[in-house]
Design a protein that fits this description.
Elements: E1 2-5, E2 17-25, E3 28-37, E4 41-46, H1 59-65, E5 69-74, H2 91-105, E6 110-115, H3 118-128, E7 132-138, H4 145-148, H5 153-164, H6 168-175, H7 179-190, H8 199-209, H9 214-222, H10 232-240, E8 246-251, H11 256-266, E9 271-276, H12 282-285, H13 287-299
């Protein structure tokens, strides 16, 4: 496993130094792209899992944090500019990747800011070992879209295998990643300000979804195969086992079922929480508001 510098022509970022981390999983080498900006104590930014997942959704937040931290943002394996092989994407891959990446890049416990489904992986690693000094979770989730909608594991598994199939799967995936569909989903539960969902914005998101192999990890997320926990009690149990400070940022317009679960997390003893404008994409839509909400937590020496 090693890291290499990528030329700016080979990678589009948010103004930092773009590198690749070569990581081995079951005798297969994956190229994981990450970007570093700023100086100071290290802070890791983990984007949410989604069909359009990329470190660039953390780009503006990274720029705002860079005067205070050395910010590192990643593209998860199977997403963004990282390798997208046709693996059976499941929690074990991301659990091991996160552990190995931290061990390779950092030599002390770090601050982590994680969005959406990255929450469970951060909490599991934090309970397992002293990887983090403080944790901020942005609109944290633990259950994928299809299970949240009530689909059984059997139905979700059938959908996943269908999308993974060579011809029909590619066709289904393309139907569910058209620019009109992406725009609909953003308006429904990702952004709250429709004026920000411009044609140019959606075109960039669409381009992300059309990379070779993009459907494999995306299908795993949508069907719940990247759910690192299966029950809310397990998710809350991880938080109750933490020994490091935790803050949760909740969007006031988050869908009711997800909002209810985030409220349950925020109600646990010792958890700091704040409600800000936005929905599931609050970190991308309102980065300055998010920073203002968490800066005391991030900068306070007592945490």
């Amino acid at each position: 496993m090693s890291t290499n510098l990528l030329s700016t022509s080979a990678a589009i970022g948010f103004g930092g130094v773009v590198q690749e981390y070569l990581w081995n999983w079951e005798n297969q080498q994956l190229r994981v792209v990450y970007e570093t900006l700023g100086k100071g104590s290290p802070l890791l930014l983990l984007p949410a899992f989604s069909t359009v997942s990329t470190r660039l959704e953390m780009g503006e937040l990274a720029r705002l944090l860079a005067p205070h931290f050395q910010v590192v943002a990643i593209d998860w394996p199977g997403f963004g500019q990282s390798s997208r092989p046709s693996l059976n994407y499941r929690p074990q891959i991301y659990q091991q990747f996160l552990e190995d990446f931290l061990k390779a890049i950092f030599n002390t416990p770090i601050t982590v800011v994680a969005a959406g489904h990255a929450a469970s992986y951060v909490l599991q690693l934090a309970v397992k070992q002293a990887a983090f000094s403080r944790i901020v979770l942005l609109a944290p989730t633990w259950r994928g879209p299809l299970p949240t909608m009530g689909a059984s594991q059997q139905i979700a598994g059938m959908v996943r295998e269908l999308v993974r199939s060579p011809i029909l799967g590619q066709a289904l995936y393309k139907l569910n990643t058209t620019q009109s569909f992406l725009s609909f989903m953003y308006r429904r539960h990702v952004f709250t300000d429709a004026a920000k969902i411009t044609p140019n914005f959606i075109e960039k998101k669409w381009h992300t979804t059309q990379q070779p192999g993009a459907r494999f990890a995306s299908a795993a997320f949508v069907t719940g195969n990247l759910d690192a926990v299966r029950e809310q009690s397990d998710f809350l149990g991880l938080v109750q086992s933490l020994t490091v400070p935790l803050m949760v940022v909740i969007g006031e317009s988050i869908p009711p079922k997800s909002r209810e679960e985030m409220n349950a997390l925020a109600a646990l003893p010792g958890v700091k929480s704040v409600v800000v404008p936005g929905s599931l994409g609050l970190h991308e839509e309102y980065p300055a508001v998010v920073l203002e909400a968490v800066q005391d937590f991030l900068f306070s020496p007592e945490n």
